[in-house]
């Protein structure tokens, strides 16, 4: 059974393998990270761990029984009881409820472990799957998201009050 784990240094090889294996799949619905992301992965990964250590972000990976990363689930800009949620799952597990179940679990962790009361997430209009995940996980649309917020694509912001169970 997959397990949601806090990101640590030892996850780096599996995270890079996940990103590389799913690059084209992700690029179909969100902006591509670009070659520089992969070329400078070690530096960027170290920066993420430093942000997590500083308490401004919390990064999680969904790890399969074989140690492979099945998804990334991140809380950005933790402040004043709020954070922004971002996530992506591997193509081979997409459409099976994995993202929805893990977003629900991360909502529980966000409240219990990080003391958050509200999460926000943005998704493009074209990303129907992500909109479904957010809705099933108890998020409601709260307004338009500018293309600059979503890698050049128009979309919507969703929000969930973590003090209310969906």
Protein topology:
Layout: E1 3-6, H1 12-21, H2 23-27, H3 35-39, H4 41-54, E2 58-63, E3 69-79, E4 82-89, H5 98-112, E5 118-124, H6 128-136, E6 140-145, E7 155-161
Search tags:
alpha+beta; seven-stranded mixed sheet; globular; single chain; 166 residues
How would you explain this protein's 3D organization?
With 166 residues, this protein is α+β, with helices and mostly antiparallel strands. It has helices at 12-21, 23-27, 35-39, 41-54, 98-112, 128-136; strands at 3-6, 58-63, 69-79, 82-89, 118-124, 140-145, 155-161. A seven-stranded mixed beta sheet has the order 1-2-3-4-5-7-6, sandwiched between helices. The longest helix is centred in the middle third of the chain and has 15 residues, at 98-112. The two termini are 24 Å apart.
